[in-house]
Amino acid sequence: MFKGFIFDLDGTVYRSEKLIPGADRVIRLLREKGKKVVFLSNKPIQTREDYASKLTRLGIPTKPDEVINSTFVMTHYLKKNAPHARLFVVG
User: Fold this and answer.
1) Which residue in 12, 27, 76, 87 is deepest, having the highest Cβ count within 10 Å?
2) Distance CA 85, CA 1 (A)
3) Measured between alpha carbons, how far is 84 from 91 in angstroms, rounded to an integer?
4) 44 within 8 A of 72, measured Cβ to Cβ
5) C-alpha torsion 81→8→29→56, nearest 10
6) Closest CA relative to residue 53, chosen from 43, 42, 39
7) What is the pLDDT of residue 91?
8) 43 in a structural domain
Protein backbone atom coordinates (compact mmCIF):
# COMPACT_ATOMS: atom_id res chain seq x y z
CA MET A 1 0.00 0.00 0.00
CA PHE A 2 2.60 2.60 1.09
CA LYS A 3 6.02 2.74 -0.56
CA GLY A 4 7.76 4.76 2.12
CA PHE A 5 7.62 5.78 5.75
CA ILE A 6 8.92 8.83 7.61
CA PHE A 7 9.62 8.40 11.31
CA ASP A 8 10.09 11.26 13.73
CA LEU A 9 13.04 10.51 15.95
CA ASP A 10 12.84 11.78 19.52
CA GLY A 11 9.92 10.14 21.31
CA THR A 12 8.95 7.93 18.36
CA VAL A 13 12.06 5.88 17.56
CA TYR A 14 14.09 6.67 20.68
CA ARG A 15 13.96 8.66 23.87
CA SER A 16 17.36 10.05 24.84
CA GLU A 17 19.69 7.03 24.51
CA LYS A 18 17.03 4.27 24.59
CA LEU A 19 15.06 2.81 21.71
CA ILE A 20 11.30 2.87 22.01
CA PRO A 21 10.35 -0.82 22.45
CA GLY A 22 9.72 -2.45 19.07
CA ALA A 23 10.98 0.45 16.95
CA ASP A 24 13.92 -1.51 15.60
CA ARG A 25 11.70 -4.48 14.68
CA VAL A 26 9.17 -2.33 12.83
CA ILE A 27 11.87 -0.54 10.84
CA ARG A 28 13.65 -3.80 10.03
CA LEU A 29 10.39 -5.40 8.80
CA LEU A 30 9.57 -2.40 6.61
CA ARG A 31 13.03 -2.47 5.05
CA GLU A 32 12.81 -6.24 4.50
CA LYS A 33 9.57 -5.62 2.59
CA GLY A 34 11.42 -3.14 0.36
CA LYS A 35 9.84 -0.03 1.84
CA LYS A 36 11.72 3.27 1.90
CA VAL A 37 12.36 4.44 5.46
CA VAL A 38 13.64 7.90 6.40
CA PHE A 39 13.95 9.69 9.71
CA LEU A 40 12.98 13.25 10.54
CA SER A 41 14.06 15.66 13.25
CA ASN A 42 13.19 19.30 13.74
CA LYS A 43 16.24 19.77 15.96
CA PRO A 44 19.08 21.56 14.14
CA ILE A 45 21.58 20.76 16.89
CA GLN A 46 23.03 17.62 15.33
CA THR A 47 24.06 16.83 11.76
CA ARG A 48 22.47 14.18 9.62
CA GLU A 49 25.63 12.13 10.17
CA ASP A 50 25.21 12.46 13.95
CA TYR A 51 21.63 11.21 13.81
CA ALA A 52 22.60 8.31 11.52
CA SER A 53 25.43 7.33 13.88
CA LYS A 54 23.11 7.42 16.88
CA LEU A 55 20.49 5.27 15.16
CA THR A 56 23.15 2.79 14.07
CA ARG A 57 24.59 2.69 17.60
CA LEU A 58 21.09 2.00 18.97
CA GLY A 59 20.61 -0.94 16.59
CA ILE A 60 19.00 0.64 13.52
CA PRO A 61 21.64 0.78 10.78
CA THR A 62 21.16 4.16 9.08
CA LYS A 63 22.96 6.19 6.41
CA PRO A 64 23.10 10.00 6.64
CA ASP A 65 21.02 10.35 3.46
CA GLU A 66 18.18 8.57 5.29
CA VAL A 67 17.93 11.45 7.78
CA ILE A 68 16.20 14.79 7.22
CA ASN A 69 16.63 17.57 9.75
CA SER A 70 15.62 21.21 9.79
CA THR A 71 19.13 22.39 8.87
CA PHE A 72 19.13 20.19 5.77
CA VAL A 73 15.70 21.49 4.71
CA MET A 74 16.71 25.13 5.24
CA THR A 75 19.97 24.70 3.32
CA HIS A 76 18.21 22.98 0.43
CA TYR A 77 15.56 25.73 0.31
CA LEU A 78 18.12 28.55 0.34
CA LYS A 79 20.31 26.94 -2.33
CA LYS A 80 17.26 26.68 -4.59
CA ASN A 81 15.56 29.99 -3.85
CA ALA A 82 18.36 32.35 -2.87
CA PRO A 83 21.63 30.88 -4.15
CA HIS A 84 23.57 34.14 -3.90
CA ALA A 85 22.13 35.41 -0.63
CA ARG A 86 24.46 36.49 2.14
CA LEU A 87 23.32 35.27 5.52
CA PHE A 88 23.91 36.12 9.13
CA VAL A 89 22.58 33.13 11.04
CA VAL A 90 21.50 33.58 14.66
CA GLY A 91 20.43 30.55 16.60
Assistant:
1) 27
2) 42
3) 21
4) no
5) 90
6) 39
7) 64
8) yes
Structural domain contains residue 91: no
Q: Which residues are tagged catalytic?
A: 8, 10
Residue 16 belongs to a domain:
yes
User: Quick check: 62 and 39 in contact, CB under 8 A?
Assistant: yes
Q: CATH code at 15?
A: 3.40.50.1000
Total number of domains in the chain: 1
Which residues form the domain of 43?
A: 4-81
Question: Please, what are the averages of pLDDT over each run of 10 residues along the chain (91 residues)?
Answer: 94 95 97 98 92 97 96 92 88 64
CA Rg value for the chain: 15
* Nearest 10 degrees: Cα torsion 77, 91, 5, 78: 0
